[in-house]
Amino acid sequence: MPGFDYLEFKRAIAQLSAMKLDEATAHKSAFATAATLGITKEKLIETAGYYRNLVEKEKDHFAQALDHQNATKVTARQQEIDRLRDQIERHKTEITRLQDEIAGYLNQVSAAEATVQQESEKLDKAKTAFDKAHQAVLLAIDKDVEQMHKHLA
Fold it and tell me: Is residue 146 part of a domain?
């Protein structure tokens, strides 16, 4: 509002209070200045009511804006959170399924490794037995040849 009104009065009180005047003196001094401009107590109260109504209207506008922001940001975000939680649960289920599948494969690998180990040991034993038999045959042949050289002229 143009001219001296409640806001100007409030500013004047703040300035006087900053100069360390007590509250009553600050109010009386600010009103004395306002009175020289033709402002009455009723006019100050009336303009205070005007600003009070403005603040209430602003509160209503803020509430509407807040509701709109809530709908666009909070509600939409909550829906996104719900969607993500659902996705997380689906992934957890899939992870559990894959872990079970991996456990099955690990059991198969362990069984196959045990079989490989057993077969490898069997083959090593067979090779060792063959090598012994081979050596024994070679020694026997070499001994026979030696006997032939010795006994046959």
Answer: yes
